[in-house]
Automatic annotation (TrEMBL):
Organism annotation: uncultured Sulfurovum sp
Protein's UniProt keywords contain Heme: yes
Cofactors named for this entry: Zn(2+)
Swiss-Prot/TrEMBL domain comment: The J domain is necessary and sufficient to stimulate DnaK ATPase activity. Zinc center 1 plays an important role in the autonomous, DnaK-independent chaperone activity of DnaJ. Zinc center 2 is essential for interaction with DnaK and for DnaJ activity.
Protein name listed in UniProt: Chaperone protein DnaJ
Native organism taxonomy: Bacteria, Pseudomonadati, Campylobacterota, Epsilonproteobacteria, Campylobacterales
InterPro entries: Cyt_c-like_dom, DnaJ, DnaJ_C, DnaJ_domain, DnaJ_domain_CS, HSP40/DnaJ_pept-bd, HSP_DnaJ_Cys-rich_dom, HSP_DnaJ_Cys-rich_dom_sf
Length: 384
């Protein structure tokens, strides 16, 4: 049986760093998490593969062994790579879930996310959504009105999804609410995938909510987006999540997706801009005006500026979202040459080239020894 490569499972390259590994894992794990994919065996299996791969690759010693010997090398050293396998501890497992869901009750920007849910409730109080931002909105911050829909428990079935709230014992876990999974010599209990840990299942679906256990209510909210947010950052909107049976509202988490800009390229808090420079400007070293995030700057080109040369402007980048100053604006030169020359221009350039003398033909002196060497090679071949 062919093994699926751990790097392929996590969609990363073999030379990825820890940050890239964690980012890819969190994205994929949230996509295939059982809570998001109820009764989906394929998603559940995918989630287990992701967890197994991440547990190995995030550990430098395990990763080194895996790179050399594959899974067989890990098993041979008593280091099963499976999720919950030997070599792991519960703190490590909880840390992984906390990092994925932002465990801990943070506030405002970058706050943690908890999977809060009341008994017999079919949805979490907290929910999240991707939120697109224009480049300038992310850089400078803004107030945004957004329309959301939050879940409210169905009164007719008391949030159970069953007609008249009538439930029966789950036949998959025999009412235990959990199943035991074995990984090598270790055993771990996890919520039943059929009843999601409740131990009961719906006998007949509620007609009011079509068995969902909830209705959706519309809401328009205004959020203050801080300056400096970037793709992947999250904002917690406290009290705008789903509503429990008791009337408590959870939290809404927005994950930002920032659009790219035609001219500015962002890298963290630094911003890059490509500056087209005509070859004569580069040779002469002119001063030119370039755009920056909040206006314009003067770029003083040095005499003989080369293609791809970079000029940095301190504190002209993006404001750090946590208040730690600003990044840099980095202008990168792109030398532009004329596509066509008329006779007069050719003549002027030829005269200019002549005024530089030997300096205008640097290849001549550089290749003298090469020409001589090649000539000797041909002579020796003929003599042979």
């Amino acid at each position: 049986m062919t093994e699926i490569d751990y790097y392929e499972i996590l969609q990363v390259s073999k030379n990825c760093n820890g940050s890239e590994l964690k980012k890819s894992y969190r994205k994929l794990a949230m996509k295939y998490h059982p809570d998001r994919n109820p009764d989906d065996q394929e998603a559940e299996d995918k989630f287990k593969e992701l967890s197994e791969a991440y547990e190995v690759l995030k550990d430098e010693s395990k990763r080194s062994i895996y790179d050399q010997y594959g899974k067989a090398g890990l098993e041979g050293r008593g280091m099963g790579g499976g999720f919950g396998g030997g070599g792991q501890n519960m703190d490590d497992i909880m840390d992984m879930f906390n990092s994925m869901f932002g465990g801990g009750g943070g506030n405002g920007f970058g706050g943690g996310r908890q999977q809060r849910r009341e008994s017999n409730q079919k949805y979490n109080l907290d929910f999240e959504m991707e939120f697109p931002l224009k480049f300038n909105e992310a850089v400078f911050g803004c107030d945004k009105k957004i329309d959301i829909k939050y879940k409210v428990s169905c009164d007719d079935c008391n949030g159970t999804g069953a007609e008249n709230g009538k439930l029966e014992t789950c036949d998959y876990c025999n009412g235990q609410g959990q199943v035991v999974m074995k990984q090598g010599f270790m055993s771990f209990a996890q919520p039943c995938p059929k009843c999601h840990g409740e131990g009961q299942k719906v006998a007949s679906s509620c007609g009011s909510c079509s068995g969902r256990g909830y209705h959706e209510e519309p809401e328009t909210i205004t959020l203050n987006i801080p300056a400096g947010v970037d793709t992947g950052n999250r904002l917690r909107a406290q009290g705008h999540g789903n509503q429990s049976k008791s009337g408590q509202r959870g939290d809404l988490y927005l994950t930002f997706n920032v659009e790219t800009d035609e001219h500015f390229v962002r890298d963290g808090n630094n911003v890059y801009i490509e500056v087209p420079v005509f070859f004569t400007q580069a040779v002469l070293g002119e001063s030119i005006t370039i755009p920056c995030l909040d206006g314009e700057l003067e770029l003083d080109l040095k005499v003989g500026t080369k293609d791809k040369a970079q000029f940095s402007f301190k504190d002209e980048g993006v404001a750090d979202v946590h208040g730690n100053g600003k990044g840099q604006l980095i202008a990168q030169v792109k030398i532009v040459y004329p596509k066509k020359l008329n006779d007069e221009q050719k003549e002027l350039l030829s005269k200019l080239q002549e005024t530089f003398g030997v300096e205008s033909s640097p290849h001549t002196s550089k290749f003298d020894s090469a020409f001589s060497k090649v000539t000797d090679w041909f002579k020796s071949r003929k003599e042979d």
